[in-house]
């Protein structure tokens, strides 16, 4: 893995990270916003301590453990990645409530255009802030965006100590089973 200096990571704050999307995906995973490592590499969930890629594999979404640099392969499995807020930051706490609300509005428009079967927001706090649903819990939501169902997953950040890789994989697998249905 490439090592970046603090100056190189700071310089990445202005670097957009392209979505990995296509029309009609089975699941569109939605992160909170790109971290500086993601912005520096251009690859989603690139920070070494992030558990997204291992959990995606453990839950059965991918037949092997993908590296962030292989994110384009997700499309062949009917999966994609976007973010609630596009602005890269060192920590999600740098985002404002207005950015979350605007991100939720833009995300709903994107989902309506792409029509994935499921939108999977990774992070219940981000989901609550983006969609004004203060009582949302991890799992399937009542909310839909057009015909797209919504599922909230635990945040795979290494900072989320409430969930282990194993318990996260179990929740991701619940979504995988639901996404296989009609």
Automatic annotation (TrEMBL):
Catalytic activity, EC: 3.2.2.28
Keywords linked to the UniProt accession: DNA damage, DNA repair, Glycosidase, Hydrolase
A Pfam entry, by short name: UDG
Domain (Uracil-DNA glycosylase-like): residue spans on this chain: 18-179
Principal EC category: hydrolase
Residues passing through the membrane, by range: none
Alphabetical list of Gene3D superfamilies matching this protein: Uracil-DNA glycosylase-like domain
GO MF term list: hydrolase activity, acting on glycosyl bonds
PANTHER family registered for this protein in UniProt: G/T AND G/U MISMATCH-SPECIFIC DNA GLYCOSYLASE, G_T MISMATCH-SPECIFIC THYMINE DNA GLYCOSYLASE
Protein name: G/U mismatch-specific DNA glycosylase
Organism per entry: Streptomyces kebangsaanensis
Lineage: Bacteria, Bacillati, Actinomycetota, Actinomycetes, Kitasatosporales
Gene: mug
């Amino acid at each position: 893995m490439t090592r970046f200096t603090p100056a190189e990571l700071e310089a990445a704050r202005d670097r957009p990270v392209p979505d990995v999307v296509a029309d009609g995906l089975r699941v569109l995973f939605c992160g909170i916003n790109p971290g500086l490592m993601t912005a520096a590499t251009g690859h989603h969930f690139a920070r070494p301590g992030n558990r997204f890629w291992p959990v995606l594999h453990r839950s059965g979404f991918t037949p092997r453990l993908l590296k962030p640099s292989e994110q384009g392969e997700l499309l062949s499995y009917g999966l994609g990645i976007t973010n609630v807020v596009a602005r890269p930051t060192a920590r999600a706490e740098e985002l404002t409530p207005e950015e979350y609300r605007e991100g939720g509005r833009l995300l709903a428009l994107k989902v309506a255009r792409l029509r994935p079967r499921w939108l999977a927001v990774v992070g219940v706090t981000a989901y609550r802030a983006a969609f004004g649903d203060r009582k949302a819990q991890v799992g399937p939501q009542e909310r839909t965006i057009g015909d797209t169902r919504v599922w909230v997953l635990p945040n795979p950040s290494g900072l989320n100590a409430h969930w282990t890789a194993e318990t996260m994989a179990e929740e991701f697998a619940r979504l995988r089973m639901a996404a296989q249905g009609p």
